[in-house]
Amino acid sequence: MAAVGLALALLLGQCSSPQSGGGSSVTSPPASPAVTPTPASVSPFTGLPGRVGPVLAVKIDNVRAARPHTGLGAADIVYVEQVEAGLTRLLAVYSSQEPPRVGPVRSARESDVELLRQFGRPALAYSGVQSALKGLIQDAPLYPLPPERAPAAYVRDPGRPAPHNLYLRPERALAAAPDADKARDIGFRFGAAPEGGRQVDEQTVRFPAARYSFTWSAPEKRWLVSMDGTAASTTDGKRLGPKTLVVQNVTVRPSEFKDSGGNVTPYTETVGSGTALVLRDGKAHEARWSRPAATDGTTFTTPAGAPLAFAPGQVWVVLAPR
User: Fold this and answer.
1) How far apart are the C-alpha atoms of 289 and 249, rounded to whole Å?
2) What's the sign of the alpha-carbon dihedral 296, 298, 302, 306?
3) What are the distances in angstroms from CA 23 to CA 10, 30, 272?
4) pLDDT at residue 107, rounded to an integer
5) What pLDDT was estimated at residue 19?
6) C-alpha 220: how far from its chain's center?
7) Per-residue pLDDT tens digits for 248-281
8) Fewest Cβ atoms closer than 10 Å to its Cβ: which of 78, 112, 245, 268?
9) Residues contacting 191, CB < 8 A, separation 6+
10) What are phi and psi of 203, to 5 degrees?
11) Helix, strand, or coil here: 158?
12) Residue 27's pLDDT is what?
């Protein structure tokens, strides 16, 4: 009995709480910001709860005559890409929202195929493509939706000059691509802001013939967009402004193709790795991006290698030439 009592006393002593004074105290590491993958009921593109629908990418014109845009504020992700003559076009990705009209729609580029591989097999709406690229687009793992394939999905605006007057009806476009993949994890993480960062009121990104400025609005908690020195709004009068801005430094090189004017078409490489700047909550955070293969998503991490969380909401990714 004495031996049993002694063993029981030793066992209770080993199991005693650190607060009781018995045994050594164990200190838990501090909690890190929540940057876990988003659950199925939350959009993996925005980190917000709601609809997780099929992915529709739309190639949008962005010269001065094409502005203001329609339906761009409803996009989950907006990519800014360099095209011929140093100008830019937008690739808007929709899943959680389906606006009645989007545009103006313009032609696709070779870079779009590589960029969209991480989305599985999405639908891609565009106005046309160079004849030399038709085979590449048709064979790509996506559902191509130019006007000749989905005529009911497009409408011309008689109040605008061609070619800046072609608009897409997303509901009809997706009806023509019923098997388009739904939104999935493409590497984005959402949650609390990382520690550190530097206070930034405005960030400007320059292309050879285009300029984007993003100004932090503390009351609206988003980055208000200006294009070529002019505030960017949509046709419903709402100012464009993402919650998170990513300036992703990439290689932009000449491709083998030219436009009708003889200008070489740039190719934007989105597979690989490099540096980036992630802006959220009025601060800029140095980052690294990585996408080992075209079918992989693009991850963004701190210089130390920790996942870098975005602010929930719309994300703009500016594919800036290194």
Assistant:
1) 9
2) negative
3) 11, 22, 50
4) 94
5) 37
6) 20
7) 999 999 988 776 677 788 999 999 999 999 999 9
8) 78
9) 33, 34, 35, 36, 47, 309
10) -130, 130
11) coil
12) 37
pLDDT at 39: 55
Residues of the chain where predicted confidence (pLDDT) is lower than 70: 1-40, 259-260
Residue 134, classed as helix, strand or coil, is helix
CA torsion sign for 122, 296, 223, 108 is negative
Quote the CA–CA distance of 147 and 126 in Å, as a whole number: 8
Q: What is the pLDDT of residues 207-240, one digit of tens each?
A: 999 999 999 999 999 999 999 999 999 999 999 9
**Total residue count of the chain as it appears in this document:** 322
- Gap between the Cα atoms of 68 and 62, Å rounded: 9
| SS3 letters across 16-78 | CCHHHCCCCCCCCCCCCCCCCCCCCCECCCCCCECCCCECEEEEECCCHHHCCEECHHHCCEE
C-alpha–C-alpha distance, residues 285 and 308, integer Å:
9
Looking at residue 40, its pLDDT comes to 59
H helices of the chain, where?
A: 2-14, 110-116, 134-139, 170-175
Residue 105 φ then ψ, to 5°: -90, 140
Q: How many CB atoms lie within 10 A of CB 203?
A: 17
Judge whether 174 and 285 are in contact, CB under 8 Å: no
Instruction: Tell me the pairing of strands 283-291 and 222-227.
Output: unpaired
Do 321 and 289 contact (CB within 8 A), yes or no?
A: no
Question: 256: alpha, beta or left, given left = phi > 0 and alpha = psi -120 to 50?
Answer: alpha
Q: Do the bridges between strand 143-145 and strand 123-125 make them parallel or antiparallel, or are there none, so unpaired?
A: parallel
Residue type, position 175, single letter: A
CB-CB neighbours of 291 under 10 Å: 23
Backbone region of residue 4 per phi and psi (left: phi > 0; alpha: psi in -120 to 50; beta: other values): alpha
Cβ-Cβ contacts under 8 Å for 29 (sequence gap 6 or more): none
